[in-house]
Specification:
The protein has 87 residues and is mostly helical. It has one domain. Helix content is 87%, strand content 0%. The longest helix has 39 residues. It starts with a helix and ends with a helix.
Length: 87
């Protein structure tokens, strides 16, 4: 690996970093979903605007987690191919 590649690699998150970020986003999404479900079960009346915003937030957190997993998979695949090419 040359110096330029080493600098690029050090500024980019590792596969483990990306997966850890994905896990965090998905845990946030799960937590908000569980809390929202509890609130809906206990509510006598629902504010559809707030419910909609909450569901959009869950979708955004889930999407962030999915994107992190995709990036981790792409990076892992690229690293495996680079390693195979050098072998």
């Amino acid at each position: 690996m040359n110096e330029r590649n080493e600098r690029a690699d050090s500024s980019e998150p590792s596969v483990n970093d990306l997966l850890n970020q994905a896990i965090a986003w998905l845990q946030y999404s799960r937590g908000v979903t569980a809390m929202l479900a509890d609130l809906v079960h206990e509510a006598e009346g629902l504010d559809s605007k707030q419910l909609g915003l909450s569901l959009e937030a869950i979708a955004a957190m889930t999407q962030a987690g999915v994107e992190q997993v995709g990036q981790a998979h792409a990076k892992w695949t690229w690293e495996q191919r680079q390693a195979a090419a050098l072998a």
